[in-house]
Write a structure and sequence with these properties.
Helix 1 packs antiparallel against helix 2. The protein is an alpha+beta fold and about 110 residues long. The strands form three sheets. A four-stranded antiparallel β-sheet has the order 2-5-1-6, covered by helices on one side. A two-stranded antiparallel sheet has the order 3-4. It has a two-stranded antiparallel ribbon with strand order 7-8.
Length: about 110
């Protein structure tokens, strides 16, 4: 089993959720986050003014999937979130050694 941690734009969350459901992996945890990449971000306001900021709103998704589903789920996230512009996001993949089901207090081999 692997954990896929995806940092995406907030406005892409609904489309990402839909794609994960279509892919067959609808279960995930999501939370709001603030952050940035290597450089400060410049925003163009409606009045044409440019504003630089150090932190931008993002969504972080934690998705646990079987090893064999890793490539399919990562591809699905990239397909939905890639605009070709800085700030599209980042995906991290880490192995999960064990998981436990809290309700039954047992080792859980399912995702």
């Amino acid at each position: 089993m692997v954990e896929i941690l995806a940092i995406i734009r907030p406005q892409k969350l609904a489309a990402t959720k839909k794609k994960l459901i279509e892919t067959g992996y609808p279960g995930f945890t999501c939370h709001r986050a603030m952050g940035r990449g290597k450089k400060p971000v410049a925003f163009l306001l409606a009045d044409g003014t440019s504003v630089r900021t150090n932190l931008v709103g993002k969504r972080v998704l934690n998705i646990m999937v079987p090893d064999e589903a890793e490539d399919e789920v990562v591809k699905a996230i990239i397909d939905v979130n890639s605009t070709g512009n800085p700030g599209d996001g980042k995906i991290f993949v880490a192995p999960i050694e064990k998981s436990y089901r809290v309700r039954t207090r047992t080792l859980d081999n399912e995702v």
